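User: Okay, second chain of the day. Same drill as before: sequence in, structure tokens out.
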Amino acid sequence: MMKSKNRIPKKLVSIFKDKKVLEVLNKYTEYLQSKSLSENTIRNYLYDLTEYFDYCKLINLSPLKSLDQDKLRPMLSYILNKGIKQSSVVRKVSAIKSFSSYLERFGYIEKNYTDLLSIPKNTKSLPKVMGNTEIENLIKTINRYPKDTTRDEALVELIYSTGLRVSEVTGLTIGNIDFERSEIRIIGKGNKERVVIIGKKAEEKIRKYLTKSRKGILINSNPLFLNKLGTALSPRSVQRLIKKYLIMSGMDSNYSTHTIRHSFATHMMDGGADLKVIQQLLGHSSPETTKVYTHVSSRSMKEIYEKAHPRSFSKQRK
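Assistant: Same drill. Structure tokens below.
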């Protein structure tokens, strides 16, 4: 298991070069890990504390001390004046409240005044969705790349075929894929397991990648997607790859891996898939939704998937 100190962003550690601060950050990281949060989520929680730590240093206050009530508004103004977009401010305030609650709970501070912070309202906008033509253009762009792109083709096809989160894709092992059943076993958020259906195009690309680009014996425990050093491809590397191909194809530079995931869900719904099937395939299983959405069998999911997804077995392109 990766040590907690390795997940703490260097930028955050560099603000307060204090052993006590680092010790508490390590303990806080372990606390977040006990909540079954993913490595990416934990890292984001910590990274979102950067501006808060900056502000504490500015006013000569340890981040392990209680932030007085009269410092809340100046602290919030300090973050807003950084020019950070509203959705990020909401996230950062949430991270500050979470960290302060931890300090109070475990006796580092007596009073947590951040409870008085009201998080700025986040104006929700509709997520971007790529059209079928754009998906096709993205894949064609990868095909035109001069170097061997079998891995990248398989990667994009898999994300669009399954709607997996980028952290779920990079966490896959070869043994997670059942080619006989056209299924993938996923360990998602909160260590919750689910099974997703893999489309024919994605399956073909993955088989090609494993036979053409992967040298040596393939072991079930091996990561599915490797970087040039032979280790597991990281989420950040996947995001950079997708961004590179999007720019090369001349598409919206604001598109991302999450755009492809959302496009999967939208195209499934446009194809007539039931919302509860999409919920299960995406791994959306909060306590609220589990009360509403009923369990759907693997066989039923396959039938619905076949009818709805543009690149399924029954909708092969000529």
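The chain is about 55% helix and 5% strand.

User: Thanks, on to the next one.
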